[in-house]
Amino acid sequence: MMMMMMKRNYAVRLSIGLNICVLLYVCAHFGSSGPWSEDGATNWDNNVVQAPLVQDNQNNNIIPFSSNASERIVDVQTNKETIIIEKDDKEKIDVITSGFDGVIKDVESTKINLQTESVPGGQESPPLVESSISLQDAIGCKDKNLDSRVSQRGDYWVLYNYVPMTVSVKCWETITYTTHADFTFLDNLEPLLERWRAPVSIAMYTPGTDIQPTIEAIKYLRNCASPLVAQLVTFHLFFSSKHVPKSIPSREKILSDSYNCSAVAPWLNSLYTTKMYKNEKKLLYPVNVGRNIARETAVTHYVLASDIELYPSPDLPSRFLEMIRQRDQPELLKPNPKVFVLPIFEVDEKSKPPKNKTLLLKMLKNGTAIPFHKKVCSGCHSVPKSKEWMEEKEVAGLHVYHVGKRTGVFIHWEPIFIGTNLDPMYDERLSWEGKSDKMTQGYALCVLDYDFLILDNAFLVHRPGIKIYKKDSRRDALAAKTNVLIKKIIVPELRVIYGTRKGCVV
C-alpha cells in the first residue's frame, strides 16, 4: 500500500513539473503583451512582418488588424505575407476585427498585400505595396481659401482670386488645372472644361487697356458659356507696374453684371484683337509669372500646370486620384520626389481630340494625330519609352507605365506633369518669346533626382491643328538673348541653390 502511494505522489509531482515547464514555455514566447510586440510586429519565429493597419476615421486612431485573418499566407523562405479579405464578406471582416473594441467606420479597403524583403544585416525594406486607404489620408493636405487679395510680385501687380469659382472643394478631393493666357486664348476654356470637369486656376495677363476685353471675356464666359466656367474657373489678373490699367472694376460688379449673349465673343471682336495693348507696346509675354500665379493659388494639393491649348484626356482627375488612393504600385512608394507625366499629341485641324487612348492609337496609325511638336522640336517633348507607349493597348484604370529621368537623350525634355506646389517653380525672368521657359525648372527637377512617372492611359492633346516650324527672326534674336541670360546668370544661381548632378543640364 505504501509503495502504491509513493508511485502516485511521484506521478503528481511529475505532472506538476511538466505543467510548470509548459507554462514557462508559453510565457517566454508570448509575454504579457500578447501576440503584438510594441513596435507592431508579430513574433512568429524569424518571420517579422509589420502589422497591417486600418484607419479609425471616427477616433483618428491607427488600429492593427488581428493576426487571425481569414486568409493569411506566410512564406518562410521569402518572408512575404499576404492578407486577403473579400470586400463584401462580413464574416471575414468580423474575423479580422475580432478582439478590437473600438470603432472602424470604413472597411472599404479589404485587400492588403504586405511584401517584405530580406536585406543584408537582417533588416527589412519597407513594403513595396501598401494598402489602399481613404483619399484624404493618402494625400494629407491642408485646405486653402479663395479670398481675393492684391499683392506685388516683383515688377508685377497681381489680383489674386479676382473672380473665384463658385464650388467649394477640399484640397484632397480633386486636381486643379493651372494655366495662363491673354483674352484671345479664352476660346479654349470651354473645350478644356468639358474634358477636365475639375477646378481651373487661370492667370490672365492684362496690361493697360487689355484689361477691358479681358473683363468682357470673363463676363461672357460666366453668363453665356457652359455653367462649368462659373462653377470651376478662378480668374487672376496680373500686369506690370509700368503698364497699370487706368481703372479696374470691382469683383462685385463683374459678378452682378449681366451680359448680352447675342454679342460676339470678345476674342472674336476685331475692335479688341486688332488693337491689343500688349502688341502695340511690343510687350513680351511673361509666361512663367502667369504659370506661378495660377499654380500657387490652386486650392488642391495636386495640380496640372499646363497650357490652355492642351486638352486632357477625359476623367483624368478621378482616375488619377483613385490610383493615388489605392497605392498598389511599387513606383508610388519609392522615396524619390516624383511627378506624373502626360504624353502630348497633336491632331489635324479637321479632327476632334480623341477621348481615350484606343481612339488616339487609331489616329496615330492613320496619321491624323502625331506626337507633340514633332515638326517643330521633336526632342523637346520626346517621352521615354514613347514608341512602346504608343504600341501598348488601353487597359482599365490608370497606372505608371515607365519611370523616366531627364538625362541621356532626354536632357532637354520639357514634360508637362501632375505635381504639387512642393515642386520647383518656373523662373519668372523668362518669356514665351525667348523660348526655353521650362528648361530651368527641368534642370532643378533633374538635380533633385525626381522620378518622372509616365502614365499609361492619360495624355494631353493640343487644340486641333498640326504645328509646323516657321522662321521668326524676332523670336530667334530674343531666344539668343535668353540663352545668354540662362547660361551667365540663371544656371550659376541654380547650381548654388540646388547643387549639381552628373547628366543634368539646362
From TrEMBL:
<feature type="signal peptide">
    <location>
        <begin position="1"/>
        <end position="33"/>
    </location>
</feature>
<protein>
    <recommendedName>
        <fullName>Glycosyltransferase</fullName>
    </recommendedName>
</protein>
<keyword id="KW-0732">Signal</keyword>
<dbReference type="Pfam" id="PF13896">
    <property type="entry name" value="Glyco_transf_49"/>
</dbReference>
